[in-house]
Amino acid sequence: MAELLVVIVSALVVIAVSAIAGPRLGIAAPLLLVSIGVAASFLPVFDATHIEPEWILEGVLPPLLYSSAVSMPAMNFRREFGAIGGLSVLLVVGTALVLGVFFMLIVPDLGFAWGVALGAIVSPTDAVATSIIKKTPVSKRVVAILDGESLLNDATALVLLRTAIVATAAAFSFWGAVGTFVYSVVVALVVGWAVGRLNLMVRKRITDPAVNTVLSFTVPFLASIPAELLGASGLVAAVVAGLVTGVGAPRVLSPQNRLSDSQNWRTVELVLEGAVFLTMGLQIHSIIVDSENDHAGVGVAVLVAAGALALTLLVRAAYVAPLLGVLAHRARRGEKMQAHVQDMQDRMNTPEGKQATLERLQTRNRRASDRDLDRFSRRLTQGLANIEYFLREPLGWREGTAVVWAGMRGAVTVAAAQTLPEDTPQRPLLVLIAFTVALMSLLVQGGTIGPVLRLITPESGAETDPEDQTVTEQARIFDLFRTTAQEVGERPEPEATQAGFDAMKRHQLAVIEAQRAALLDARDNGTFDADVLAEALENLDASQIAIEMRATLVG
Description:
globular
């Protein structure tokens, strides 16, 4: 017990030190942790280190993916869903099939089905690994796409892995595989949505921030475990629960509860992410020993892994290149429609335009109502905001390069490889290949992503300065706040009495509540930059907490 406690405490210290020292050394903390884990794996105390893959797939990934989903701007996720869906499904399947042929030809007596199984293990990008990209100067659209892809592609890879393993012992059915995948995703969507809604309903009634946060720690597992028991994807269920929570929390949960959640979940993320990379490194020695005991050459595994990683990047580049063309075409089409949509919105601001729109919305069996008019108006606002978003941040070859090079493999690949059945042909070699692909991806791609992005980033002034855009967005939010405060009414005259303090407090809280509602409406319409809007919401929360604390002290 004492040795275990020493190991746990030492791991926490190493994670904390790496988080501080990594940026100062110019090395991403995950790479530093993997390196430390690899070095430690050769110490006698870690000779027989084996981490059960279920601990990673079912114990660590659900809370990490849930936390990422909660903090991900839902509007950006919706806008990029076409690209995210293609990368999460089509690219994973295509990469697994291409790698299946490669492994079948390179690894003796492996067979296509087992090759596809290994390809499915290597195909998905890792949510924890791609966190490295967030610390680099890259487009927000690239971050949204990579975040969304890493949240969803694990489900495709794991379903494909199970299908390939089944195909080694029975006849393969294409439509059966498609049906299994659709069932896995649909059930996960339903379970995740239900858990997310129930989470908000329950926690809305709990005022103690500590208790509220403790309950939040259970949400990813309340979503993932039932989904897995139903034969669906627990990871997708956890992601959906996180998205539902992230969208609804600002309207439902108190600022104190959201602040507590944010602080504590950041700590959980730091510890779990650090533990993932440390355990990746710690397992290298035992994996190498298993491979040598099976008389499989380590050098062969490294060469095969290098070829697989290069092929993975080539397939990814071949997919991303036409994807950029499709996205550019959509942006150009939106630009052509912009003037027409803007004209429609301008007409909606006049009585004649509203009446004409009501008449157009009317059907034979149903008369259009003011609610239909409001819904149509919101769609116009969202459409204009989407067009401006795609025109403001176009995706060119630089962003495409970032999407390709930032698609790193990580803990999911290592954990999934260790779920291969014991009777898998040349299992130790396949596990070593998967681990080496993940390790090389982190070291090569993760170690060079910063310099690569700096090399391809245009000189300052060549494009719109992001800081200028941020200042413009902040000015727009300030105008929104001023207008909203005026609509609430005049501030009461200050009086040095309890009644005067109470009146002032009520007015201040009413203004904040109105400003928050206006911001959330703007969020749902997509009319503000997601990061600037999130910062404005945090400032409102801080102001509300300060007012309530001051009122408590005065009272």
